[in-house]
Amino acid sequence: MAHVTTMERENRRFGWLLTAPGLVLLAAVVLFPIIWAGITSFFNYSLIFPGYDDFAGLGNYAKAADDGEFLHSAWITLLFVVAVVGIQFVAGFVVALMLNDARRGKTVYYLILLCPLLINPVVVGLMWRMILHPTLGIVNWLLGTVGIEPVNWLGAPDMAFWTVVLVDIWHQVSFMVVLLLAGLSALPAEPYEAARVDGATPFQRFWHITLPMMKPVIVVTLLIRMIFAIKTYDIIYIMTRGGPGVATDLISYFIYRRAFVSLDLGEACAMAAMLLIVIAGLTAVLWRSMRQVQD
Description:
The chain is mainly alpha-helical and 295 residues long. It is built from 12 helices and no strands.
């Protein structure tokens, strides 16, 4: 037993030795910016007059909490997250249920569904910006063939917000389908066979068997998608730049503007820290939920 213990220690030491360069690089790339931003958030640091001479304490956090534009951006982000995650979940669950019952062509369906997910968000933004162009876009051309006036998809505040929501849904719904379908495929068949013998309808089987057994997977899927939705930046930057006005000014893009347009890096770092706390909280809940699924 002592010999085995010694070998295990040597193996662990060797494993840490192999992973040390990668861990050091990861710490330099990930931890250093986080620590630097955290320190900067306590100073009145401006890119016009950079320096750590003016200590602000929690002043930047107080200004962020009292900033009407920041609160509006947080509200827009909340609406965006609820809309995209809610619609993606419903649509994704329906498609996953259909694919789970499919007998033929599953591989073809998978390939079609995964195509949007494989496209880079920047490319998605550029592609849809051209498709929805008010004069050159194919969508308005198709509407014109049936006598409908061209729509300014990205120029009207309400229209722009929901257009961005729909583009994000088109891009990310496959992610929801894949995770939910994996959960459905892992469900045991015995409860369904017993329910059929007892004469349960398809809706009863879904409501009383599928949903309860899928609850852990649903929670994990929703949390993962919420975390990514809160951080949405690429599509907003490419398609609308937060406009028109502030109709699509999601919090990630707002923080970018505060740092590199208003040049107030101290307050921007405080806002980023507040966003990081929210995401860290969701990540903690996600981790706990994943542990429950494994148990």
